[in-house]
Amino acid sequence: MPERNKILGIALGGGGARGLTHIGILAELKDRQLAPDMITGTSIGAVIGAMYAATLDPVWIAERIKSFIDSDEYKKVGLDSLRISGQSNPSIFQTATNYVKQHVMFSIANDRLGLLRIERLQSVIEYMLPVKTFDQLRIPFKCSALDLNTGRDVVFDAGDLVEALTATSAVTGFIQPLVSGKYLLTDGGASQPIPLKLLQSMGPDVTIAVDVNLRNFRKLKNPNILQVLSRAEQVSTLKLSGLTCEAADVVILPETLNINWSEFGQVDTLVENGRKAVCNQLENIESKLTFKEPLIKRILRR
Known about the structure:
Structural class: alpha/beta
Number of helices: 12
Helix content: 40-55%
Largest sheet: 8 strands, mixed
Order of helices and strands: EHEHHHHHHEEHEEHEHEHH
Shape: globular
C-alpha cells in the first residue's frame, strides 16, 4: 500500500465499560494500516488511549484489562456493587446514590468528596500502565480533567501520566476528585465527553471521533426525582457529544450493547463490536486520507 501523507488523530470518548469498544477500533485501524498518529481521550478513553500510545498493541490492552477484571484490585474498586435492579441504564449519579443508600450514611456522604478514595483509582491506573510518564509514550497523547474550582478544563500532555489518567477518570460523585495544587480535578467527561477540540489543537489532518454514549432510552415508569435528574444528565451528555462530533472528519458509533458504565464483563464482545464499527466506516476513513507515493520514490522509479 502506498504511504499515506496525512496525519490521523483519534479522540476516544468517555463512557465507562462501553469504552472497551475503543480497543477493537484501535486494533482494526492498525490491522488496516490506518493506525492513528496521535490520540486524545476522556476517562476510559484516556486510559485506553494512553495504553495504546505506550505499547501500540491493542491485543496487550485487551489482555491487561481482562487480567484486571479478574484481579483483587477490581473487587476493591467496588464497581460490582453499583448495579441497580429493575432500572435500565442508570447514570453515574444514580448508581452512586444507590451505593450510598446501601453502604454509608447520608450524613457521612455529605462530608465526602466521593464515595471511594482517589488512591484506589490511582492503584488501578498504575496496574494498567506499562509506563509512568508522558515522555515514555510512543505517539503523542493528551487528556483533560475538569477543575471544579474554576469550571475550566486542565490539559495534561507532559509529566506524570498516572496522575493525569487518575484525574480524567475520577468518576464524578463516585470517586473523590484529585487535589493537585490549586486544582480540584474530576472526570474529564463532565466537560468534554469526546475530546475532539483537544485533538484538533494537536494539528492532525484528519480527525476521528468515537462516541460510546448511551443512545437508546426506555420510557420512565413512575419516575422519582433521582431518575429524572439521571435521565436529564444522560441526554445532556449525548447531545453535547453530538454537537462535538459535527466538527470531526469521521464519527464512529460502535455498538456498545447500551450497557451500564460499570459493566466490565463483556470485553470480547465489545472489542469485536469496535472492529465492526471501523469496517462500517472504512471507505469513509480511507477517502479522508490521501494515499500518495512520495515524490522521491516516483523520481527513483524513472
